[in-house]
Design brief:
The complex is a heterodimer. Chain A is built from 5 helices and 18 strands. Chain A is of the alpha+beta class. Chain B is an all-alpha fold. Chain B is about 70% helix and about 5% strand. In chain B, strand 1 and strand 2 form a beta hairpin. The radius of gyration of chain B is 27 Å and the shape is globular. The chains are: A alpha+beta, B mainly alpha.
Chain lengths: ~375, ~575
């Protein structure tokens, strides 16, 4: 079969690897303008990657096979090649082990893309927190007390926040007047003509002006998502316009249907079935420099389901693995009184370890065979 | 030539080299007449977050300011420590030395200096224009480093160098000091001296006085004098520096030597570990083993070349033995650095250069023992020299034994991931440079079949080795990332660079196995491996993004581009048909 022959050929292997090099190189260059996160989505987690030849201007783009496509083709190629030439012999064992290891690694990377989650947990000293935040995603929440001491939270995900969208609630409608995925917010008196003319009529945002901005590309900064929203009680006219943003702390309050409601835009939350309390954060620097010597966070894990209540220490290169999540010391804020953890769920985290061991041992096996052959060949030449 | 005389010749060159090394070590250890600056140079202080001898403090400052380890101009100053003594205790003389390089017209305009032949200016020449420089430096400092113009970069460099200069000037004394011992004594009964001392302390980040306990148990000299006002007693170290300075100011070598020796004795009793560490580092600086290695590698390379033209086996052996001396010294240098730092061999870009050279030489020696054709030796000498030259240029950017940032502070991963991946770089460069030899031989004459076979075997074998090390090193890096940051692979530029090397090695092997390339094609591909490796090593750092971007220099960009172009030319030459060559 010509198709099978093509799929199992070494020529295809070399072609795919060359394309992979090209993709990786171009993606590395694009990171300067797009940032690592966007590049991952556009180049590596895609079928076709469009490369902007002149960075920043979308004038001239070239298509390249994306990471997902190349990964699947490489897996097919390896399977086909080994299927076509499979022999159960010791001399072939090394190659089989190596390529099985590579298959595991490619699968691991693809699965991580689908199953992995990455969030952050900023936590002040003394504070107890039971959720993590997604740094690149926001949600609009509407909160109402339910009368028995608890609160009902309605969260609208970022994907549904569009200009003109309306969300009917119990007794009123929340209307998104305008939504900015990333924006710049300045006090009214500093606004230049590029800023929007529209202003809020209620709340803390009244004296501010907003303008749209491109997405944030720096790793250590997040988008400032902003929306003008209107509250329209059923059968009445609008109560006014509020400016909501994750740049503001706290919530906006309003009255509707006889209750006091609160609303805000905040980072999307991932709730955990346990809480973490930050007991102490320490950050040492080398004498006379700003070079960090050590970061560490002393925490208490409180889990009412299992009855756990214990202390632990998270520090550089020593994460906490708990309940399928891993907490890493990733940063600090507020004059060293806030610790920031990277919170990661990756159910396939063991695959790279297995793969590394397999490929490493396989390569060692194959190359030792080469070496032994070369030595015996030379000894023959010298002997003759 | 008779057999004994051949043997003698094959030993003569290595013996001379050994003598050269021995004399350099002897000179470094030998004590001097007049001022005992070597003992002064060994005294420990804390700067840049670590205990180091005054020698390193002075050397690194000179490297940053002048780009050399000695003061330019008349040769009255023998060592960096001597310059430091002058700078601290006789600043009025040091301020007249023309050590600041200014060649940018806009800076000359800003400072109102007139263009001079040698383009260097003294501190006292620049001093009047501080008013003009400072606001400019503040303005530029607020800009992102990547967006700075050449003038702005030059001005920032000048500002940084003036800062370093001032730091050192205030480390052990303050300008205008006359009789330091009497001055300190008078402060004891005068608590109004504190504000002056605090002002002095604000000028320096050098912690000269071992006072207190633990790693941070060091005080700046002026702070220690403030402590003395409260305690009613001057710290022995403060008193020692006062006496050393007073002796230097009154040109009294006997008193100078006596005070240095007395302080040494005190340190021996109270801070013996730190004293022995700083003295070792001072000796290490003076011996400069990597500089000696560079000389040996040049000799090795010349001997190897001669061996192909005349008296093959004599010069091949001489080259190999000289290389072994170089390797011994190179290894000793690496080990001493490891002991001083308490770390595995590769901790920053500088040490990666030193280690790549070392790795290449070790691998080449294995090749040479196997093939005995001096090609391994020649390539080892060339790569060894080249990487040490790169290391020298990297050392201009500051302290090469700097402390590790918290995120990198793990000896386990430094010893595994970093060492393995750096050996992968070594192997790739080795394969690439052997391939260059192949292509050059081919260009300048036909290659005999046995030589071609052995070159092919060498390149193939080394690429196999490179594949193993690059792969394992890259994946170990992923595992470290999984341990430290919670993701195995983040497509960070340095990770991508490492992956490119692995993929390129895999491409060469598959192309060879599939018969897509023959001998020459594999050689050309191996040369391209040099480009891929240098991109991973240096190019990715120049993008200024990602977790690994720890060293950016403009000059490096020019050199990297030059290297890439040279490799492309060599690859092109490989495709000139044999007939046209003949």
């Amino acid at each position: 079969m010509p198709v099978f022959k093509l799929l199992s050929s070494l020529r295809l292997t070399v072609t795919l690897l060359v394309l992979a090099m090209l993709l990786i190189f171009v993606a590395t260059l694009s990171q300067v303008h797009l940032g690592i996160h966007e590049v991952q989505l556009l180049y590596f987690r895609s079928w076709i990657a469009w490369w902007d030849v002149i960075p920043g201007e979308k004038t001239f783009s070239l298509p390249l096979p994306g990471g997902t496509l190349l990964g699947i083709l490489l897996i097919t190629n390896i399977l086909a090649a080994h299927g076509a030439r499979f022999q159960l012999r010791w001399s072939k064992a090394g190659m089989i082990v190596i390529h099985s290891g590579i298959l595991i690694m490619l699968l691991g990377e693809i699965l991580t893309g689908f199953l992995g989650k990455e969030a952050q947990m900023p936590i002040d000293e003394g504070q107890t927190v039971n959720y993590s935040l997604f740094p690149r995603e926001v949600e609009l929440v509407v909160v109402v007390p339910d009368g028995v001491g608890a609160e009902t939270v309605t969260a609208i995900p970022q994907g549904r926040l569009e200009d003109g969208a309306e969300f009917p609630m119990a007794g009123f409608t929340l209307k998104i007047h305008k939504f900015y995925r990333n924006s710049e917010i300045v006090p009214e008196e500093k606004a230049t003509p590029e800023f929007e003319k529209v202003r809020a009529t209620e709340g803390v945002g009244k004296r501010y002006a907003v303008r749209r901005k491109g997405r944030e590309t720096k790793m250590d900064r997040r988008d400032l998502s902003t929306a003008y929203v209107e509250i329209i009680p059923d059968g009445e006219k609008s109560q006014g316009r509020w400016l909501l943003s994750n740049a503001f702390k706290g919530e906006e309050k309003y009255e509707a249907a006889g209750k006091t409601w609160k609303m805000s835009i905040r980072q999307r939350r991932l709730y955990h079935p346990f809480s973490i309390k930050l007991l102490d954060f320490s950050h040492d620097r080398y004498l006379g420099t700003n070079v960090p010597k050590n970061f560490s966070s002393k925490i208490r894990i409180i889990n009412s389901e299992t009855g756990e209540d214990r202390e632990d220490l998270i520090y550089m290169n020593h994460p906490l693995r708990y309940s399928g999540l891993t907490f890493y010391q990733s940063g600090f804020d507020n004059n060293d009184s806030t610790s920031i953890f990277q919170v990661v769920r990756n159910p396939v985290w063991t695959l790279p370890y297995i793969s590394c061991a397999m490929v490493g041992l396989g390569l060692l096996w194959v190359f030792s065979q080469h070496l032994i052959k070369a030595v015996s060949r030379r000894n023959k030449v010298t002997a003759s | 030539m008779s057999n004994p005389s051949r043997k003698f010749l094959a030993w003569l060159i290595p013996a001379l080299c050994l003598l050269f090394v021995a004399s350099a070590v002897f000179r470094a250890l030998n004590s001097e007449k007049g001022y005992h600056f070597k003992e002064f140079a060994a005294l420990p202080v804390v700067s840049n977050g670590r205990v180091q001898p005054l020698d390193s403090l002075a050397r690194n400052a000179l490297l940053a300011i002048v780009g050399k380890q000695r003061v330019p101009g008349d040769d009255t100053l023998g060592s960096p420590a001597e310059w430091l003594a002058e700078l601290c205790f006789r600043p009025e003389i040091a301020d007249e030395r023309k050590i600041f390089l200014i060649h940018h017209d806009e800076i000359l305009g800003l400072t109102g200096l007139t263009r001079s032949e040698e383009k260097t200016y003294s501190y006292s020449q620049i001093l009047p224009s501080f008013q003009a420089i400072q606001p400019e430096a503040r303005r530029i400092g607020a800009k992102e480093p990547q967006t700075r113009t050449p003038y702005e970069k030059a001005l920032m460099r000048l500002t940084r160098n003036l800062g370093i200069y001032n730091q050192l000037k205030h480390a052990l004394a303050h300008p205008g000091q006359e009789d330091a011992e009497a001055e300190f004594e008078s402060f004891l009964s005068n608590s109004s001296a504190v504000s002056g001392l605090q002002n002095w302390a604000s000028f320096t980040e050098v912690y000269a006085v071992p006072s207190g306990k633990g790693a941070d148990g060091w005080r700046k000299l002026p702070d220690s004098v403030i402590d003395a006002i409260q305690a009613g007693e001057i710290h022995p170290a403060s008193l020692a520096y006062a006496r050393i300075g007073d002796a230097y100011r009154s040109s009294d070598p006997v008193a100078f030597n006596k005070s240095v020796a007395a302080y040494g004795t005190w340190l021996h009793g109270n801070r013996s570990v730190q004293l022995s560490k700083s003295s070792s580092e001072a000796v290490f600086n003076r011996v400069a083993p990597f500089y000696l290695c560079m000389v040996l590698y040049v000799v090795t390379f010349l001997c190897a070349i001669i061996s192909w033209l005349w008296q093959g086996s004599i010069f091949r052996q001489a080259a190999f033995r000289t290389l072994l001396i170089g390797l011994a010294l190179h290894t000793a240098g690496l080990i001493i650095r490891m002991l001083l730092e308490g770390r595995p061999p590769v901790t920053n870009l500088y040490s990666s250069a030193v280690f790549i050279g070392w790795g290449t030489i070790v691998l080449s020696i294995a090749l040479e023992l196997f093939y005995r054709n001096a090609i391994g030796t020649a390539v080892a000498a060339m790569v060894g020299f080249g990487t040490l030259l790169i290391a020298h240029h990297l050392s201009l950017s500051g302290d090469t034994l700097e402390m590790m940032r918290a995120v990198l502070d793990t000896n386990f991963w430094l010893a595994t991931h970093v060492v393995v991946i750096t050996l992968g770089y070594s192997a790739n460069f080795l394969a690439g440079f052997i391939a260059i030899f192949y292509l050059m031989f081919r260009l300048f004459g036909s290659i005999p079949k046995p030589t071609a076979n052995s070159l092919r075997g060498m390149v193939y074998g080394v690429i196999c080795f490179a594949t193993l090390f690059s792969f394992v090193g890259t994946v170990l890096g992923g595992i470290w990332a999984d341990q430290s940051w919670g993701r195995f692979w983040g497509w960070d530029p340095k990770e991508n660079g490492a992956l490119l090397i692995v993929i390129w090695n895999a491409i060469i092997l598959h192309a060879r196995w599939g018969g897509m390339v023959k001998e020459r094609g594999m050689m050309v591909m191996a040369v391209f491996g040099n480009i891929v490796t240098s991109w991973s090593w240096f190019g990715t750092n120049m993008l200024g993004i990602g977790l690994h971007s720890y060293g950016f220099t403009d000059a490096a960009f020019v050199w990297l581009s030059g290297f890439v172009i040279s490799q492309l030319i060599i690859m092109g030459l490989g495709y000139i048909p044999r007939k046209a060559v003949a």
